Amino acid sequence: VHLVESGGGLVQPGGSLLLSCAASGFTFSNYPMRWYRQAPGKERELVAFISSLGDRTLYLDSVKGRFTISRDNGKSTVYLQMNTLKPDDTAVYYCNVIPGGTIPYYGQGTQVTVSS
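Predicted structure:
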């Protein structure tokens, strides 16, 4: 299993970023995907979930209405569109999959910094 996140960076409050996670090493279309984030000194938290077919999504309360998770099964890629970013969104963002329902896999992460 190989997950590679990209798209992070420095953005001003109110700005937007599109994160991508390219997956390989498993049958992408068979599994739900998740985005997590971890801010300095804090626990890693689940930000968004998308079902294998993309027909069901769930979000952390604090990002509802601002973030959108989506996937392209033909490209084995999951996305996180982040709008109206706030300083509290600053964190390293990771995509996640649990193929077989046992061992979780994460990518290396991509840093998102929201600051003026």
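Summary: The chain has a mean pLDDT of 97.
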